[in-house]
Design goal:
about 110 residues, mainly alpha
């Protein structure tokens, strides 16, 4: 999978759909902003939680969005691997495969950001 191409296509599809349901998009955006705000847990920790859920639900686009956020937030490859190990432990074989996809996405989105 070409993660950059996949995410560009996903974002284009979301943009088209968003024009049809602006109220839903506004509400979803507000919910996301509130959920990701630093509090007792940092935004980075919350993104690792979201990535684990994305792996468990086998959502490629969710993996892409949350991995990109983790790269933006300065997550290291070591942190990513530990989080993916936990996701694999909790989700078994399917999560193992999706964790491998997530690591590939991390490597792709990390290129040039270090």
């Amino acid at each position: 999978m070409d993660w950059k191409e996949f995410m560009a296509e996903t974002e284009a599809n979301i943009a088209s759909f968003s024009k049809e349901v602006p109220g839903t998009v506004k509400g979803f955006g507000q919910m996301g902003q509130a959920a990701k705000a630093d509090g007792a847990l940092s935004e980075k920790t919350k993104e690792f939680v979201a990535l684990g859920i994305a792996i468990a639900t086998r959502c490629d686009s969710c993996i892409g969005f949350h991995v990109r956020s983790l790269v933006r937030l300065g997550a290291t490859r070591e942190e990513m691997c530990e989080a993916l190990a936990m996701a694999t432990y909790m989700g078994g074989g399917p999560s193992y495969a999706f964790s491998a996809k997530a690591l590939k996405a991390f490597d792709t989105f990390s290129e040039g950001s270090n």
